Amino acid sequence: MIPLSYYLVLSALLFACGVTGFLIKRNIITIFMSIELMLNAVNLSFVAFASYWQALSGQVFVFFVMVVAAAEAAVGLAIIIAVFRTRETLNPDRVNLLKL
Q1: CA dist., res. 3 & res. 55, Å (int)
Q2: CA–CA distance from 96 to each of 6, 11, 55, 72 (Å)?
């Protein structure tokens, strides 16, 4: 059996990679993927705690986070495509107005 601390360290590393990508990258798609990586890191810690404590609530939270992530992906990608069609760039510094 793998100890809980290994899962938490892996989750922290994934979350740190997501935060780094979010702060450093200058592409909307990469920022979007970094957010997904952070959500999956949180899901990993939820599942690890749920398994450790033998509780179902952690897995319910994971299901909720996955539903939110799927909705975010659908809406976010639609917005990214609309922005790219009008501005022809994915640099968030050049997209400073919400008006298309």
Answers
A1: 17
A2: 41, 33, 45, 21
Compute the distance between CA of residue 18 and CA of residue 49 in angstroms, rounded to an integer: 21
**pLDDT tens, residue by residue, 26-71:** 888 999 999 999 999 999 999 999 999 998 988 999 999 999 999 9
The type of residue at 11 is: S
Contacts for 73 with CB less than 8 Å, ≥ 6 apart: 32, 36
Could you say which DSSP state residue 93 is in? T
Note whether 28 and 94 are within 8 A (CB). Answer: no
Q: Are 100 and 82 in contact (CB under 8 A)?
A: yes
pTM for the full model?
Answer: 0.84
Asked if 18 contacts 38 with a C-beta cutoff of 8 angstroms, the reply is yes
